[in-house]
């Protein structure tokens, strides 16, 4: 008999690094979840852009269970069929020629930054170690990646931080150009800043970074952990911009809910990572490979990409209709199904409050800082789920505007 548990047990047993919602989800299907009391919620959060095919997708279930009956894990002393097939699918679909698999976006970014340093040291000299990143970025929680992320709130308690990392202003090419020089080994950037407020890069900004990296023989790393795997209406956001990075990191939706990530790069760059230079115990295991392969099969289709654009319009039209009545947001921005609703000055700092009231009304949303409500739902969320979720979101917004939210 299983032990009975509740939300209250979190404070008793779990390290207090999170502040989870007051309810505990126990079951989900599509973009609808149910909690321990049987209350249903429409999921506009998508597990933070992870559940790109919703919950309990039957083909992902089948891929996982079939592989689970064959081979779970061997460690990196061996390779396996599912992960090799997934590597080839990623190579065929992108600029990449080589793939490194790991478990999370932070690990993928850590690998990318290590690759950049090693490439510079091997091909140039030990002094070519500078990394240029951007303010309000987010690249993960390891010490290296949290240092590259330009949000001091996440890094200030863990000093001394890794050295030789500088931050320019996002979408400000002059600011970046002032920092990028011949000692720079890499520039890491999100094509769309996710945690930083759902801010798309301007095309000229990314083109300029590409030119600066070429000029100074630095690697251009695109962090597509949140924007990748169909989220923007292209398999990866770089495809919208026509700017090809040297290294791309991908995670979140790649496993459709199963923890996995990858770093993609070229033959030339990958060649410096020789046996023993990097690794991870679980990265590229057969279960992840089987699920990730099926995720890519299902998402990398034109009908899905077209569907993302249609759903983008459903959300934008719905939020704008709400805003016309309530005047709560001063801007709605983003690409595809990564959408940020920026609060007006009168409601500054109240994104978390909307998040909480929305849950009371039966819809799950995200925040991206104190002033942005973020949506990152399933790429195949149904029109009825969007309609129902937006109705619930409107009730939550109305409560906030009228001062009824507790």
Automatic annotation (TrEMBL):
GO cellular-component term (any): cytoplasm
Which InterPro entries does the UniProt record give?
Answer: Ac/SucOrn_transaminase_bac, AcOrn/SuccOrn_fam, Aminotrans_3, Aminotrans_3_PPA_site, Class-III_PLP-dep_AT, PyrdxlP-dep_Trfase, PyrdxlP-dep_Trfase_major, PyrdxlP-dep_Trfase_small
Q: Which locations, inside or outside the cell, does it occupy? A: Cytoplasm
Which cofactors does this protein require? pyridoxal 5'-phosphate
Residues reported to bind pyridoxal 5'-phosphate: 105-106, 138, 223-226, 281
In this UniProt entry, the residues modified to N6-(pyridoxal phosphate)lysine are 252
Task: Give the UniProt keywords, A-Z.
Answer: Amino-acid biosynthesis, Aminotransferase, Arginine biosynthesis, Cytoplasm, Lysine biosynthesis, Pyridoxal phosphate, Transferase
Group of enzyme by EC: transferase
Q: State the reactions this protein catalyses.
A: N-succinyl-(2S,6S)-2,6-diaminopimelate + 2-oxoglutarate = (S)-2-succinylamino-6-oxoheptanedioate + L-glutamate; N(2)-acetyl-L-ornithine + 2-oxoglutarate = N-acetyl-L-glutamate 5-semialdehyde + L-glutamate
GO MF term (any one): identical protein binding
Free-text cofactor note: Binds 1 pyridoxal phosphate per subunit.
PANTHER family (UniProt xref): AMINOTRANSFERASE CLASS III, SUCCINYLORNITHINE TRANSAMINASE
Job description of the protein: Involved in both the arginine and lysine biosynthetic pathways.
Q: What is this protein called?
A: Acetylornithine/succinyldiaminopimelate aminotransferase
According to its UniProt entry, this protein's organism is: Izhakiella australiensis
Write the lineage as a comma-separated list.
Bacteria, Pseudomonadati, Pseudomonadota, Gammaproteobacteria, Enterobacterales
What gene is this protein translated from?
A: argD
């Amino acid at each position: 008999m299983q032990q009975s548990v509740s939300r209250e047990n979190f404070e008793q047993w779990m390290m207090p690094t999170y502040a989870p919602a007051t309810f505990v989800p126990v079951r989900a299907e599509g973009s609808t979840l149910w909690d321990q009391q049987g209350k249903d919620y429409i999921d506009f959060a998508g597990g933070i852009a992870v559940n790109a095919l919703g919950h309990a997708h039957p083909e992902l279930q089948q891929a996982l269970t079939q592989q689970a009956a064959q081979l779970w894990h061997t460690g990196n002393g061996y390779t396996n069929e599912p992960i090799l097939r997934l590597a080839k699918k990623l190579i065929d679909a992108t600029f990449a020629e080589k793939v490194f698999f790991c478990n999370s976006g932070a690990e993928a970014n850590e690998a990318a930054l290590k690759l950049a340093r090693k490439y510079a040291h091997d091909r140039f000299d030990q002094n070519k170690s500078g990394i240029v990143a951007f303010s309000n970025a987010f690249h993960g929680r390891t010490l290296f990646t949290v240092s590259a992320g330009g949000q001091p709130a996440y890094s200030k308690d863990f000093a001394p931080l890794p050295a030789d990392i500088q931050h320019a202003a996002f979408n400000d090419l002059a600011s970046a150009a002032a920092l990028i020089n011949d000692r720079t080994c890499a520039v890491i950037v999100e094509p769309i800043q996710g945690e930083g407020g759902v801010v798309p890069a301007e095309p000229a900004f990314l083109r300029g970074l590409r030119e600066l990296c070429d000029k100074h023989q630095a690697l251009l790393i695109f962090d597509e952990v949140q924007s990748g795997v169909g989220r923007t209406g292209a398999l990866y956001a770089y495809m919208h911009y026509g700017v090809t990075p040297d290294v791309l990191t991908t995670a979140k939706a790649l496993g459709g809910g199963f923890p996995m990530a990858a770093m993609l790069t070229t033959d030339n760059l990958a060649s410096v990572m020789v046996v023993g230079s990097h690794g991870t115990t679980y990265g590229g295991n057969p279960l992840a490979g089987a699920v990730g392969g099926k995720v890519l099969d299902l998402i990398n289709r034109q009908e899905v990409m077209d569907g993302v654009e249609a759903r983008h319009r459903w959300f934008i039209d719905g939020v704008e209709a709400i805003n016309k009545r309530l005047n709560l947001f001063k801007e709605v921005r983003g690409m595809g199904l990564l959408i940020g609703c920026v609060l007006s000055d009168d409601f500054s700092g109240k994104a978390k409050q909307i998040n909480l009231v929305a849950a009371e009304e039966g819809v799950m949303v995200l925040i991206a800082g104190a002033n942005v409500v973020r949506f990152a739902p399933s790429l195949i969320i149904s029109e009825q789920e969007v309609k129902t979720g937006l109705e619930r979101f409107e009730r939550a917004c109305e409560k906030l505007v009228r001062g009824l939210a507790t």
